Give the backbone structure.
Amino acid sequence: MSRPVVARVLCGTAVLVLVTGCSSGTPGEGATTVAPVSASSAPGPSPRPQDGRVTVAGTLTEGLESPWGLAELPGGDLLVSSRDERTITRIDARTGAQTVLGEVPGVVPGGEGGLLGLAVRDGRVYAYLTAASDNRIVRMRYDGGEGDRLGAPEPVLTGIPKGRVHNGGRIAFGPDGMLYAGTGETGRTGLAQDLDSLGGKILRMTPEGEPAPGNPFGGSVVYSYGHRNVQGLAWDAAGRLWAAEFGQNTWDELNLVRPGRNYGWPEAEGRSGRAGFVDPVAQWPTSEASPSGIAYARGAIWMAGLRGERLWRIPLSGAERSGEPEAFLTGEYGRLRTVLAAGGDRLWLVTSETDTRGTPGPGDDRILRLVAE
């Protein structure tokens, strides 16, 4: 399937006003039920635009089944998880050659659950997965040499609520050396506000799964709450944490995450201006985003869209936007699941057409090499 090399740009479609009247339904990631909303900008002056550009430099590998998590090994090769096949595959970062490292025991795929996010640290592969009774984080030894296989999974954190939808699933190590996880409220909206539940939260823990020093709620791994379904985590150059999450029918969000803060769900979706809730830095109609992975590069957050089938660039100046979000690759590669910074101006981008909600074509799914400007 022929694809253009230079992405097309659509500017100014992210919006900053709350439109009321969202439905009470609970569509999952990339669901087709979308409330009719306007994409007009809020009144008043807009931030000065800072236009960007992204170039598709090539396809690293293709033929992946339900790819979800992506992590870089020391030396630059990649690990990719298959949500439904329950496998982790090593990808040679130069040739794209695939080596299946093994199937992860205990994964029970179903709906939006399965083998999800990956992270790598100190000779271990961490994985967020859906088990028979819960979502959990495990870690497996992997030395990374030729012929090495994954070790047996060791539980790191158990008891994260599971469901057919809204399982969250992104994990990443922060610049502080702690492990962070984005979870979902599994369609049970009240979990997001319940500080005794791990659902609808961003979690922060030691590599062994203990509450991280300095967490806002004593003895708890909960870092922030009031989230619907977090699948994107990234840190900017100053170490600030950003998160993308799915809205219901009206607004998807990009949030700047502060410890102990309440991000509003289910009382608020998108910007509400209500005391006690943190408003998003940017928001989109769910038809234009349904955001999964995010990455930081070249002064901007890059956000992969599933239903929106586009890659968003959100330019930043410190803790604020410095311009209107821009959309790239709109409709060119279908659903986009994960984006990973690869150093400097380089990004990896994983498509998601084989996740049962796409329309797979020849070569799907694939990992693309991007160059950002």
Remarks:
- The chain has a mean pLDDT of 90.
- The radius of gyration is 19 Å.
